[in-house]
Amino acid sequence: MDAHASGTGESSGNPDESEKERLDRNLHELLEGLRVALPGVQVLFAFLLTIPFATGFESVTTFQRDVYFTTLVMTTLASICLIGPSARHRARFREGDKKWIVLTGNRLAQAGLIFLALAITGALLLIADVIFSLEAALITITLVGVVIGWIWFAAPWIRQARDLNDDPA
């Protein structure tokens, strides 16, 4: 069964691999990927949680306060989505529901990365606005947003589209 027929978006790896083996491998790869992403989210979240208690926070502008809170919410949503696959695995792994865990876990991981991208750009927007100016902040987040957009999303999606077009099936 190939990646597109399986619905997981993962290659079959070994042609002799059973569906159970493929799902086990896909789940393992998904959880390993989350182990990479989660520490970054946790550091950003911890940083954001300390800001309101820092000296000088009361002097931020309304715009900065709004950006801060929006960034905090995006980081919270990223954390929820990126932890979601592990929570679903813990809740359903004994039920033989690995296919659902892998499919929905992958979607949650993708959503988590989108929220993380928004949180990173939001944190940069806030910091650059406080340190420099709104104009510098907008230039910074635009450049960083393009880099994140390309590396995390556009390049993989373009490659996937190319692979689908090259697939004779």
Could you explain the architecture of this structure?
By secondary structure, this protein is mostly helical. It has one domain (18-52, 68-159). The chain is built from 5 helices and no strands. The protein has helices spanning 3-6, 19-50, 62-92, 98-131, 134-166. The radius of gyration is 19 Å and the shape is flat. The model is unreliable at 1-10 (pLDDT under 50).
SSE map:
Blueprint: H1 3-6, H2 19-50, H3 62-92, H4 98-131, H5 134-166
Helix pairs in contact: 2-3, 2-4, 3-4, 4-5
Cα Rg:
19 Å
What order do the helices and strands follow? HHHHH
Enumerate how many helices there are, as a single number: 5
Uncertain segments of ≥5 residues (pLDDT<50)? 1-10
Strand content: under 5%
Main sheet makeup: none
Helicity, as a percent range: over 70%
Number of domains: 1
Whole-number mean pLDDT? 89
Q: What's the number of extended β-strand segments?
A: 0
Distance between the termini: 11 Å
Which shape, going by the Cα principal axes?
flat
Output the structural class.
Answer: mainly alpha
Essential attributes:
169 residues; flat
